[in-house]
């Protein structure tokens, strides 16, 4: 069985949050790696910034915070943020976080994994363009429809969430966005039986204008039929459905959805899938997974990216310690998985429970419960 040596090389398939975080830790510790991404990189390149600059509230100096409201009664359930929880909180979307984590990395784009082969000396990744890469460890950080996972755990498949998502973005004037930001400095989450959603500020535009992103997820009727409809629907139909779902919400939310118009709708909408691994460790060998490849979840607890980064930290720590101890590669990866898999499974199931719950309090995704517990 192969052991980890100082000449170890890690192949990372996927340049999402988890893959990039792992690459940065390996880079800091001088461990050789290559990182591959199937996309063309256009959405991940460009300007970079620090985490402290990533929040849209950085310029104003306001602490990041979220308000939670009852969608039916319009009552404020609570507010969670740096100034209420006692913990630093920075809100940043995934694309911005990917740009931050990409800094200093040589990501190889347009590399779609076809398969991998394992032998006594390591693992070889084979890409659809005919190129290959060889390493000591292969890490699948390639998302909820992971190619690495599909080979490693065949015939396992992630399941489609019952929650059907509609997304849009809209430019609001100061008088239109002030009621939202008066409740939470970053925006509002709303919930009621069968409907969860959010409206967040994305960026400040010209004086008196801001770009907002919103999401609503509904659970009603046959999820498969609803998903099929959302994939085929026109932007006009998607917008009409969103208006119908949100018409009873507070006017500052309902009107913003109306103002979005068909042009502001995302098409096709995001299709959420959930990955619940049924094992606590993966097959022996030099291959493992992390992030959404191991535990993709619905976003109602806000734990997806946080859990993915924790995976990267844990895996890197095991690799670093394994190099120092000269331990067997498979033993190192299995020890990491015994931490990662149960933790990820718990987060997936908690997020699912929040999505399907009829409790308005669950719209906070556990944030308000945690805050109250810490303040006792």
Describe the structure.
By secondary structure, the chain is of the alpha/beta class. The protein has two domains: 9-48 and 92-160 and 274-355, FAD/NAD(P)-binding domain (3-Layer(bba) Sandwich), CATH 3.50.50.60; 61-89 and 162-264, D-Amino Acid Oxidase, Chain A, domain 2 (2-Layer Sandwich). Helices cover 37% and strands 23% of the residues. The chain is built from 13 helices and 16 strands. The chain has helices at residues 17-28, 51-54, 82-85, 94-102, 147-152, 174-181, 223-232, 235-246, 251-260, 292-295, 304-325, 329-356, 367-375, and strands at 9-13, 32-36, 65-70, 76-81, 107-108, 113-119, 122-127, 132-135, 137-140, 159-160, 164-173, 187-192, 195-204, 209-218, 273-274, 287-289. It has a six-stranded mixed beta sheet, sandwiched between helices. A five-stranded parallel beta sheet has the order 5-2-1-9-16. Helix 1 runs parallel beside helix 4 and helix 11 packs antiparallel against helix 12. The radius of gyration is 22 Å and the shape is elongated. This is FAD-binding domain-containing protein. Its cofactor is FAD. Residues 8-345 form the FAD-binding domain.
């Amino acid at each position: 069985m192969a052991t980890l040596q100082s000449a170890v090389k890690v192949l990372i398939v996927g340049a999402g949050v988890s893959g990039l975080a792992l690459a940065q830790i390996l880079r800091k510790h001088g461990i050789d790696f290559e990182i591959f991404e199937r996309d063309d990189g256009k959405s991940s390149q460009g300007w970079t910034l620090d985490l402290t600059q990533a929040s849209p509230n950085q310029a104003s100096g306001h602490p990041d915070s979220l308000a939670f409201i009852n969608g039916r009664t319009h009552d404020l359930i609570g507010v969670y943020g740096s100034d209420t929880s006692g913990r630093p909180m920075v809100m940043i979307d995934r694309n911005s976080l990917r740009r931050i984590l990409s800094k200093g990395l040589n990501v190889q784009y347009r590399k779609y994994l076809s398969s991998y082969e394992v032998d006594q000396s390591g693992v070889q990744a084979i890409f659809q363009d005919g190129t290959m890469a060889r390493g000591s460890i292969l890490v699948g950080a390639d998302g909820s429809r992971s190619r690495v996972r599909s080979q490693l755990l065949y015939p396992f498949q992630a399941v489609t969430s019952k929650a059907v998502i509609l997304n849009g973005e809209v430019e609001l004037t100061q008088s239109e966005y002030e009621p939202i930001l008066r409740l939470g400095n970053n925006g509002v989450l709303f919930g009621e039986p069968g409907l969860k959603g959010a409206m967040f500020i994305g960026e400040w535009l010209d004086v008196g204008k801001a770009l907002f992103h919103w999401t609503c997820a509904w659970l009603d009727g046959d999820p498969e039929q609803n998903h099929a409809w959302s994939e085929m629907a026109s932007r006009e139909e998607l917008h009409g459905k969103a208006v119908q779902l949100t018409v009873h919400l507070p006017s500052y939310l309902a009107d913003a959805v109306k103002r979005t118009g068909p042009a502001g709708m995302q098409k096709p909408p995001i299709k959420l899938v959930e990955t619940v691994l049924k094992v606590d460790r993966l097959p022996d060998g030099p291959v493992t997974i992390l992030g959404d490849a191991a535990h993709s979840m619905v976003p109602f607890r806000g734990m997806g990216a946080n859990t993915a980064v924790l995976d990267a930290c844990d895996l890197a720590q095991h690799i670093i310690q394994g190099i120092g101890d000269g331990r067997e590669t498979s033993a190192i990866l299995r020890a990491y998985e015994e931490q990662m898999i149960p933790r990820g499974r718990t987060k997936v199931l908690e997020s699912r429970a929040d999505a399907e719950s009829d409790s308005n309090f669950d719209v906070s995704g556990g944030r308000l419960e945690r805050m109250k517990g810490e303040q006792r």
